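From the methods appendix. Each design record in this collection lists the tokenized structure first, followed by the designed amino acid sequence. Records were kept in a plain field format so they could be parsed without special tools. The example shown here is representative of the layout used throughout.

RECORD:
FOLD TOKENS (393 positions):
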């Protein structure tokens, strides 16, 4: 069932998946999931941010046992980041219901609206909203559309579908997120499962370097205030600083914009993003203090923080339970620290949370080449089903 579902929810397009939050592809998929949930007899809720909750009621009252991930992708993303946790979670729940019928505790599948931060300068907006933390800053996408406008246009029609509830469900007793590893370690170690011990601290910024737009042919080199020249020197310096820092630091300049971006005009402004992560907040702060110092030393440069997330240790108790289940199922596993951000790090601030990884072929992710074999995907679903069984039946 999982392979068929993934094919239905992904597009066959060499440029990859482009389900940026609230766009048409995102909306079509959340609607598809709502319909599927209704066919399976779930109670369906769509909250005001567009996260979809499918509740399979238990025979006893009490908090739900939840699983899921996010529906959005990065631009030109892959077929599994986020979606595997949603559809794999649904398959695990359906397998359990087919085999054991009704659970004792409610099983909940969650498809968070947004995790990637790829459309608006904010990430994890879906899981944060579930925890009662709505966005308070006005946010605009590259086309100048506000988060509020996009949200209302996409979410109102979903909430208006028949038999859809709109009140955010109570927080669950536990949350388990199934996800692809997005790196090479499980493949290299020939392991089927990654048991995630924690998730990196992460900070993102926009660096704006100012200059003076001017004529490319008439302005002597010594009289230029070239924003690209300044920005490229700063970028090289930051790469050097990052390389000399903590061994576990990652530093990425992923997007660069030049204004006016014309062949024969010296750039008046150059903006670039910084994404930096490390295993602990303290280690990351060592780097960001150096970043702050570089910027403070240059009046032509401004730094705008766009995301700050603390490092997270996930539930040790749930990891231990999953470790024993992996042993019972004969699945080779390894404990891993995640370098990617996940809804789990938000959920864990309120709910005992754990993550299960499956291998990523060639260790690639956030690109159309992202791939995991059907056999490897199925092993993750099997372990998730065993874990949900232990908790909810
Ligand atoms: C999102 O997946 C991230 O870790 O950047
Ligand atoms: Mn993800
Ligand atoms: Mn991602
Ligand atoms: Mn992520």
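DESIGN:
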């Amino acid at each position: 069932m999982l392979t068929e579902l993934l094919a239905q929810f992904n597009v066959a397009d060499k440029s990859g998946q482009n389900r940026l939050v609230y766009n048409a592809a995102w909306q079509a998929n959340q609607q598809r999931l709502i319909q599927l949930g209704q066919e399976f007899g779930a109670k369906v809720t769509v909250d005001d941010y567009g996260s979809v909750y499918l509740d399979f009621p238990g025979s006893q009252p009490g908090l739900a046992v939840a699983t899921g991930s996010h529906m959005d992708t990065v631009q030109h993303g892959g077929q599994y980041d986020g979606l595997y946790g949603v559809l794999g979670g649904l398959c695990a729940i359906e397998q359990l219901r087919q085999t054991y019928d009704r659970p004792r505790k409610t099983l909940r599948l969650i498809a968070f609206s947004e995790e990637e931060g790829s459309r608006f300068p904010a990430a994890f907006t879906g899981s944060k909203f579930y925890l009662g933390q709505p966005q308070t800053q006005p946010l605009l996408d590259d086309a100048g559309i506000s988060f509020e406008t996009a949200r209302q246009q996409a979410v109102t029609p979903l909430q208006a579908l028949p038999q859809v509830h709109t009140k955010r469900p109570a927080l669950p007793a536990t949350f388990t997120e199934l996800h692809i590893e997005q790196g090479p370690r499980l493949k290299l170690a020939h392991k089927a499962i990654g048991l995630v011990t924690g998730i990196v601290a992460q900070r993102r910024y926009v660096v704006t370097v100012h200059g003076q737009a001017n004529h490319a042919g008439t302005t002597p080199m010594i009289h230029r205030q070239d924003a690209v020249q300044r920005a490229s020197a700063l970028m090289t310096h930051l790469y050097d600083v990052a390389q000399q820092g903590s061994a576990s630091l990652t530093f990425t300049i992923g997007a660069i914009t030049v204004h006016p971006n014309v062949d024969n005009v010296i750039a008046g402004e150059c903006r670039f993003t910084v994404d930096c992560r490390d295993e602990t907040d303290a280690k990351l702060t060592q780097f960001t203090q150096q970043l702050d110092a570089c910027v403070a030393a240059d009046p032509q440069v401004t730094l705008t923080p766009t995301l700050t997330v603390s490092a997270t240790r996930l539930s040790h108790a749930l990891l231990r339970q999953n470790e024993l289940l992996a042993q019972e199922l004969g699945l080779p596993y390894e404990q891993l620290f995640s370098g990617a951000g996940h809804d789990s790090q938000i959920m864990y601030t309120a709910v005992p949370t754990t993550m299960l990884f499956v291998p990523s072929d060639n260790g690639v992710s956030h690109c159309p080449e992202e791939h995991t074999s059907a056999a490897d995907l199925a092993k993750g679903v099997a372990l998730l089903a065993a874990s949900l069984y232990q908790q909810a039946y």
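APPENDIX NOTE: The pocket of manganese (II) ion (ligand 4) is lined by residues 115, 340-342 (CB under 6 Å).
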